[in-house]
Every structure is written in C-alpha cells, then in structure tokens.
Design goal:
This protein is 34% helix and 15% strand. The protein has two domains: 5-36 and 73-133 and 292-306, no CATH class; 137-286, Ribonuclease H-like superfamily/Ribonuclease H (Nucleotidyltransferase, domain 5). The strands form three sheets. It has a five-stranded mixed beta sheet with strand order 6-5-4-7-8, with helices on both faces. A three-stranded antiparallel beta sheet has the order 1-2-3, with no helix packed on it. The protein is built from eight helices and ten strands. It is globular. The chain is α+β, with helices and mostly antiparallel strands.
C-alpha cells in the first residue's frame, strides 16, 4: 500500500520554527516577492503604477516619486491596516495551510497569542482570499453534482414524550441550508449555499459548459438535468459506483466539509457558511500540495485582492 501524501516528507516544506528563525526582514522579502512578482519584488505604486519610489526604511513603507503617494507591501490588500508583524502573518498562513480540515478561531488565537476576535477576522480574510481563486470559474468535462444539508435542527427535549420529529421543516429553526457542490473530475470544486438542493440545477446551467457530462444521484430534482446535459445517475440504494458512474469525488469534498464543521467549529452560522465551504473546496482541490506551497499560494491570493468588504471595520458592522 502506497504512503499517504500527508505522511510523506514531500508534504512538509515549511514549519513555524523556520518562519520565526528566518526573522522579520526575510519574511518581509517574501511578502514583497509575492506582491510584486512581475517586478521581482520591486515596488510598484498602487495609485499611478510608477516604478520610481523612495524607501521609508523606519516604517517599511515607500513613497512614489511621481504622485508622492505613500504605500506599503500590504496597502490595498486583504492585510491592509495590519497590526501583526510579517512573521506572525506568515506563521498564521502556515497554520491555516497545515489544518487540512480547518482550524477553529479559538485554537488559532491560542497558537498565535492573539485575541479570539482578531483570530476570527484573520481566518475569514484568508478564506475570502483563497475563495477568489475560483471567482467566475466555469466547469467543463465530467462534472459531479450533489448537496449537503447543514444546520436547522433544534435540540432534543429531555423527556421522550416531548420529543418531536426534527426532520420536518415545521420543527426546524429556519437556519437550515444546503451546500450544493459541483466538482469537475480532475479539476476544481465550486460550492454554493442555497435554500434547497434543487437550486443546483440552475447553478449548473450557469457555470457548466453544455457539452459536459453530468453525474448525479437518484434524487428526483436532478431529473431536470437531462434536458440540458448528458447526465448519468447512480442509485445509492443499489451501489455507490457502477461502470464509472458515481459521485464519489464530490462526496469526498462533503466528507472534508463535515469534519471541518463537526470536528473543528462545531457550529457554523448561515452568514458564514459559504466561507467555510470555500475553504474546504480550496483545500480539497490542493490536497496534494506541500504546506509551504499552500501557505505561499494563500499569501499570494491575499496580496492580490482588495481589502475585505465583509470584515472591514472589524466588529463595527
């Protein structure tokens, strides 16, 4: 039996010890290289695009020689208005990459030595950054589609005579949602949060190429897929896979997402469910990348995205 990738030495190319041993100056250079990759780490003014600048070494900032605008390596990015050092930010990204099934804000706060609210915001900013990798993405080829319901149930009553059927919609709290995921075999996973699994038909129509082949389970709402796509179905009461017809890849993604929610976070609000779904999809798609490559990939995405719309102003919104 072959060795699992996460057990192999190939999966470990970056450690927290190495990050702190490198020091603030070396880690700052990593930020510069990833922010201005096209110019080999040389600053480019985000306002006018000029290459001419002065260094303000005491503050790790630059001043544009043309428009006189002052900026830093994190200006106009997810990490703008940062409080943490570059070393701490890189260490946080390493922790995020190492947690293949997610990390809770409380654990992240203890590992980083920061406030739990700061940890919550930082993690969500990273999730927002990695989700941008598949923004406006389209799928083509062999596509599996399925849904995973999350939340909405209420606590069981103490006395058995008072207990009700919590599966009924009338006995739920209105917070039940479904994560509809479409996964291209050998490609990307795109999750969407919806009210019902049937909404996945409309999603597929908007992001899947018409020449693609769809794979779905026996649920009746997927019947509509046959009108627009070449669709194969698998009846799970008979088998999980028959002659290449299955939804095992998208179920693998749901397995990761369930363990992330149930094992790490325990509760995920409707408001942020899409963030956790996107994190699980990103980690599932890049599951065979080393942790160093994952951390630098996440940092590159964070440095090439504008400040968060949802977590700007922190707890004032």
């Amino acid at each position: 039996m072959s060795q699992h990738f996460l057990v192999s030495a190939r999966s470990r190319t970056l450690s927290i010890r190495e990050i702190y041993a490198a020091g603030e100056e070396k880690n700052y250079e990593v930020f510069c290289q990833l922010r201005w990759e096209a110019t080999n780490g040389e600053p480019v003014c985000p306002r006018c695009g000029s290459f001419s600048h002065y260094k303000i070494t005491t503050r790790c900032r630059f001043k544009c020689a043309d428009c006189r605008h002052q900026f830093s390596v994190t200006s106009g990015t997810i990490f703008s208005a940062r409080k943490l050092s570059f070393t701490d930010l890189l260490a946080g990204l390493c922790l995020f990459a190492n947690a293949v099934k997610g990390v809770s804000a409380l654990q992240f706060a203890r590992d980083m030595g920061i406030n739990a609210k700061s940890a919550f915001v930082m993690l969500h900013k990273i999730r927002e950054a990695v989700a941008s990798e598949t923004k406006d993405a389209k799928l083509f080829g062999e596509i599996e589609i399925d849904g995973m319901y999350q939340g909405g149930t209420i606590r069981k009553e103490n006395l058995a005579v008072n207990r009700i059927d919590r599966r009924l919609a009338s006995n739920q709290n209105g917070q039940r949602r479904v994560v509809v995921a479409l996964r291209q075999r050998g490609g990307r996973t795109l999750p969407f949060v919806a009210m019902s699994e049937a909404h996945g038909v409309q999603i597929a129509a908007s992001i899947v190429h018409k020449a693609s082949k769809m794979f779905a389970d026996e649920a009746s709402h997927w019947d509509t897929l046959h009108a627009s796509f070449d669709t194969s179905r698998i009846n799970h009461s008979v088998a999980y896979s028959l002659g290449g017809i299955h939804t095992n890849h998208v179920e693998s993604y749901f397995s990761r997402l369930r363990r992330m929610i149930e094992g790490q976070h325990h509760h995920v609000s409707v408001r942020h469910l899409n963030q956790y779904a996107n994190e699980a999809a990103w980690k599932e798609d890049h599951r065979e990348l080393a942790n160093g490559a994952l951390a630098h990939r996440a940092l590159g995405l964070a440095l090439n995205n504008s400040p968060s719309k949802y977590f700007a102003g922190y707890w004032h919104r």
